[in-house]
Specification:
mainly alpha; 5 helices; elongated
Length: about 160
């Protein structure tokens, strides 16, 4: 009789224990799935942000080129006026490079020339006038005009991995 009572008790408790175990396993699986979904959504958000940044950079480049888009002169038939229009068109396209050239030539190199003349004007004073900072300045100017975008893209690839 006691054995029957124990078997009856186990018979009613055992299905409940199995049910609780299955429920615990389901919740554990559900938590894992939610964690994976959250990680996926974070990665997708990062991809969308990178995509938006690339799109914004592309649009900025387009706007920059559109702003400085070369326009062909409208010829009038007068050689003098046509020549002036062509010169104005070329100057309009070369404003920043021309200003850079003028600042370097007349400003910075002018100062270097005055220093050279003041110190005697011989080759022996050259290392005293031309320092490491001068190399960096020239490198920065050339980097801006000829390598700024490629360097920026290369650094972005290096940083992003």
């Amino acid at each position: 009789m006691i054995a029957g009572a124990i078997l009856g008790l186990l018979g009613s408790v055992l299905p409940e224990a199995i049910k609780l175990f299955k429920d615990w396993q389901d919740k554990k699986h559900e938590a894992k799935m939610l964690e994976l979904q959250l990680r996926y959504q974070k990665e997708m958000a990062q991809i969308r942000i990178a995509e938006a940044a690339a799109h914004a950079e592309l649009e900025l480049d387009k706007a920059t080129y559109k702003f400085a888009e070369p326009k062909s002169p409208k010829l009038t038939g007068s050689k003098f006026l046509d020549f002036l229009q062509i010169i104005a068109n070329v100057c309009n396209q070369l404003v920043r490079p021309t200003l850079t050239f003028m600042v370097i030539t007349f400003g910075w190199l002018g100062v270097k020339y005055a220093m050279w003349k003041t110190m005697g004007g011989t080759l022996e004073v050259y290392p005293q006038i031309w320092t490491g900072a001068d190399y960096e300045f020239v490198g920065a100017v050339f980097g801006f005009w000829f390598g700024g975008r490629s360097l920026r893209h290369a650094m972005r690839r290096y940083i992003d991995g």
